[in-house]
Amino acid sequence: xxxxxxxSRIATIFETEFEVAPDRLLPDAHLFQDLGxxxxxxxEMIAALQKEFGIQLRDSEEARAIRxxxxxxxxxxxxxxxxxxxxGPAPQP
Amino acid sequence: xxxxxxVITGLGAISPMGVGVEALRSGLAAGRSSTVSMxxxxxxxxxxxxxxxxxxxxxxxxxxxxxxRRSMSRMSFYGHDAARQALADAFGDGSSWSxxxxxxxxxxxxxxxxxxxxxxxxxFEMMLPERDIAKLDAVKFFQCVSHTVAxxxxxxxxxxxxxxxxxxxxxxxxxxxxxxxxLIRLGRQDAVLCGGAEELHPSVTGSxxxxxxxxxxxxxxxxxxxxxxxxxxxxxxxxxxxxxLLLEDFDxxxxxxxxxxxEVSGYHTCASGEHISQSxxxxxxxxxxxxxxxxxxxxxxxxxxxxxxxxTLQGDAEExxxxxxxxxxxxxxxxxxxxxxxxxxxSGPIELIATLLMMRDSVLYPTLHLRNPxxxxxxxxxxxxxxxxxxxxxxxxxxxxxxxxxxxxxxxII
Lengths: 93, 414
Description:
The structure holds two protein chains of two kinds. Chain A is built from three helices and no strands. Chain A has helices at 3-17, 39-53, 69-85. Chain A is globular. In chain A, helix 1 (3-17) crosses helix 3. Helices cover 51% and strands 0% of the residues of chain A. Chain A has a single domain, classed as Non-ribosomal Peptide Synthetase Peptidyl Carrier Protein, Chain A, CATH 1.10.1200. Chain A is mainly α. The longest helix of chain A has 17 residues, at 69-85. By secondary structure, chain B is α/β, with parallel strands linked by helices. Helices cover 32% and strands 19% of the residues of chain B. Chain B is built from 13 helices and 16 strands.
């Protein structure tokens, strides 16, 4: 899966789960201030990403530094690559 | 200490008759039954004997902002809609009410039997197959908690006063109204949005079914059940909806020139201390008498009794005995559950709202399907067809598992 495909699937989550209009999904958009998410949404987002990509994100320290959509896209792509390289948690079914 | 007077200044309802107070009134006036077959919808549940219910309408949930909506279940959507109706009724439109209350002076007390049964079932469906906590999502808990409707309505509307949930099954909603009345009487709140909300789920009907308390002989003729006080009654028909009222300090309402439906002049709630599921006529009599005493009303002053009578064999008989003891055969009595089923924790407020409309319109709606009063339910003045008649004072009953009783007395102040 390339980065564009990952970003597209993340965009779908934002549109369907969090009702964010596609034109607002810019890499610099702040998750809280620009896209309107809050702390509960973050928990829901982690669950949705884990389910979508079969990766484990909940206990990741790097996730705490995420502020923008671009940060999130980079983080998810890196986690997928790690998991595929075998140095991350085993993918979930 | 001088107790405040309490009046009802706003009404909102979602019922099996539809959205709004007028839908409820017109359905009752037309003598409609809202019981339907659930044979298709519940076909995946085995060993259910009662295949009837009184479903409520589906609402357009997307009108509620996502971050308010995500923690709401069907019962909270109902409660929220009915609460907005009540505020719009009281203040002309739903957004102009906040300027009438100092911070913390408007409360919200809404009861239900449990948290959302749909969310509770879904939670366990997700978690239990693998005993995996990771399967829980972040918002289901907010739908499962016992005060889910009260907290969601308060959050969504920005209410900052006392928020409580009364969870006493079928008496939940009337206890909410009573608690609201007490808070205003004591001067602790200027007004309270109060009532009850419920949602249908086969596990709810099933819980009554296993106790032989749900109607099961009319699955092929759903519009003939439930049959309160009738000799052919065979149990309750579960319904869903919400009834929300705005109770307000009389002086506060007077100062803003509010329309007043009635004064809440008396209230009492008590327990039987006898049996977990059986009603007790002695406890019902005590509850009714205490409610009358708190209103300073003699039984002779009551013009109408809106009964709890849900169509169960034992409950209807005990209520009839209690009403016979206090009112004899003088006071007209009817139950509205033949029309709208038993909306459980919402039944008290929904039926209270219907009774306030009866008072406004000087009409008594009958007990639908009461064709042959059971011998144990005789000796009352049953209303079996609509009667044009002014109501000066009425009493509304709600009784629940646990031997819990509640009775509210309202007086016309027009």
